[in-house]
Write a structure and sequence with these properties.
Elements: E1 35-36, H1 44-48, E2 56-62, E3 64-65, E4 77-78, H2 84-103, E5 109-116, H3 124-137, E6 147-151, H4 158-166, E7 171-177, H5 181-186, H6 193-206, E8 210-217, H7 224-235, E9 241-246, H8 254-258, H9 272-292, E10 295-297, E11 302-305, E12 323-326, E13 331-333, E14 337-340, H10 347-358, E15 370-373, H11 376-388, E16 394-395, H12 396-403, H13 407-410, H14 412-420, E17 432-433, H15 437-441, H16 443-449, H17 453-461
Parallel strand pairs: 2-5, 2-12, 3-4, 5-6, 6-7, 7-8, 8-9
Antiparallel strand pairs: 1-15, 9-11, 10-11, 13-14, 14-15, 16-17
Helix pairs in contact: 2-3, 3-4, 7-9
The structure holds iron/sulfur cluster.
């Protein structure tokens, strides 16, 4: 529900102190590095033939929202007119049949997630159908595995929440962004505080074990004081998880279209440097506030209430297990290929891709369209990135067991730069590679520095559409 990646600028030199907000690395590589795949090399059955399939992740992407938030560059459209939701579920059913056939016997899912867009844009009846698809269509036992679902305040209605709770949802993530109405308006996500509070009440009543609340900092006009108001309003619900996202303004988003070349955000005359400073200040304030209120830091963005259960859907991706994504914006990962359908941010393009998706036959779902081949070097980078950006860091023995070398041998130059900037925790000892608090604060600068030249080139060559 909350997207925060940004177009990648050139790599800063080792000596220069890079800007802190370059790219949110929630997956490596980013979809803008994917390219069209030759059909004959991308048959799903071949791609999955030799993969371990006993602990897969399942993801359903629902590309509909009631509004388009100004900061959002996720793959989603406003509304689903003329039976589009039904047509989309019909297409998901055909895709599920193709995927099940490709996976063959013995595939087991260890966790599941419904993301978007806003999965709860679907009605309660449609959500029932989505769960049936995961269970009957793909064989996932939703009540036995962690199931994470994203929702917006307006669509977190009692009937939908009842269905989700009954079908085994263990984590409900609510995109609030700000409890301050003027800030929500500035981020082009107008909502009333009372409606947000009512939605939170309904979620707690539904009894879903883990509540996550997403908040954003760096909104024009946001101060420590107003940020604290949002943090405290969220803390009043004792959420098991809180995600604090820095605001990004990207090309083709609502805010991006309105910003000028020299401004940091729509309607603002602040400089990029001043905006960076505001975000870093609010980040530190938010982090310290949550740490003082019984939360532990899991990553730059994620905080978990001490003692709360981990219910899946967090931002730690398993390093080796496969991902099976269904829906037009979902990614899938085998050990050698990351793939998805076409990707766009512009509303017209997104609508075209969704329409093309709903028109596909089961047979046409039998191959991957766009992707990135993962070789050994990229697998090492991905492992390092995904572990190092977690607060607990990377156990060196785990890396060595998988690759036969240490991260220090494979990424000596990059890690030296990190150490020079004070981004590594010297107290972690030789067996753990861990970011310092300052390194964690600069996760969105550190992550992109670990991208390979090939990924960087592909991303730079990508034309936003
Ligand atoms: S609710 Fe807003 S942030 Fe979430 S996916 Fe929809 S448009 Fe994007």
């Amino acid at each position: 529900m909350t997207s925060t990646d940004v177009t990648l600028s050139p790599t800063p030199s080792a000596a220069a102190s890079p800007r802190p907000y370059r790219h949110y690395v929630y997956a490596y590589p980013h979809k803008t590095a994917y390219r069209a795949l030759p059909r004959e090399q991308a048959r799903l059955r071949d791609l999955w033939a030799d993969e371990p399939k006993n602990a897969l992740s399942l993801y359903f992407h629902i590309p509909f929202c009631e509004v388009r938030c100004g900061f959002c560059n996720l793959f989603t459209r406003i509304g689903a007119p003329d039976g589009l939701a039904t047509a989309y579920l019909d297409a998901l059913e055909r895709q599920a049949a193709a995927v099940r056939e490709a996976l063959g016997e013995g595939a087991r899912f260890a966790n599941a997630a419904f993301g978007g867009g806003t999965p709860t844009y679907l009605s309660a009846t449609e959500l029932e159908r989505l769960c049936d698809l995961a269970e009957g269509g793909l064989g996932a036992d939703l009540r036995a595995i962690p199931l994470s679902v994203e929702a917006s305040p307006a669509t977190a209605t009692a009937d939908r929440l009842r269905v989700l709770a009954e079908r085994g949802t263990t984590r409900l993530s609510l995109g609030v962004q700000s409890f301050v109405e003027a800030e929500a308006r500035a981020a082009v996500r107008p909502q009333r505080r009372g409606d947000v509070e009512a939605a939170l009440g309904r979620i707690r009543e539904a009894g879903i074990p883990v509540l996550n609340i997403d908040l954003i900092y760096g909104i024009d006009g946001q101060t420590e004081r107003s940020w604290t108001q949002s943090l405290d309003a969220a803390l009043a619900w004792r959420p098991e998880e809180l995600y604090l996202y820095p605001l990004y303004v990207r090309p083709l988003t609502g805010l991006g279209r309105h910003s000028t070349a020299t401004t940091g955000a729509a309607g603002s005359d602040r400089s990029e440097a001043a905006w960076d400073e505001q975000r870093l200040r609010l980040y530190r304030h938010g982090r310290d506030h949550l740490l003082a209120h019984g939360y532990e830091q899991v990553s730059m963005r994620m905080f978990r209430r001490t003692g709360a259960p981990a219910a899946g859907g967090g931002d730690y991706a398993c390093q080796t297990d496969g991902m099976v994504g269904l829906g037009c914006g979902a990614r899938s990962y085998t050990s050698t290929l990351h793939y998805s359908f076409d990707y766009a941010v512009d509303m017209h393009r997104i609508r075209g891709i969704i329409d093309a998706y709903t028109a596909r036959t089961t047979r046409e779902f039998g191959h991957a369209d766009f992707g990135w081949a993962m070789d050994d070097e990229e697998a090492r980078r991905r492992h390092l990135l995904q572990s190092l950006l977690q607060a607990e860091g990377l156990p060196v023995a785990e890396y060595r067991a998988r690759f036969g070398t240490s991260p220090g041998e494979d990424f000596a130059e990059e890690l030296e730069h990190f150490a020079d900037r004070g981004w590594l925790d010297a107290a972690a000892g030789p067996e753990v590679l861990r970011l310092s608090p300052e390194g964690l604060a600069h996760s969105d600068a550190a992550g992109p520095e670990l991208f390979s030249t090939a990924v960087r080139r592909r991303m730079a060559a990508y034309e936003p559409k």
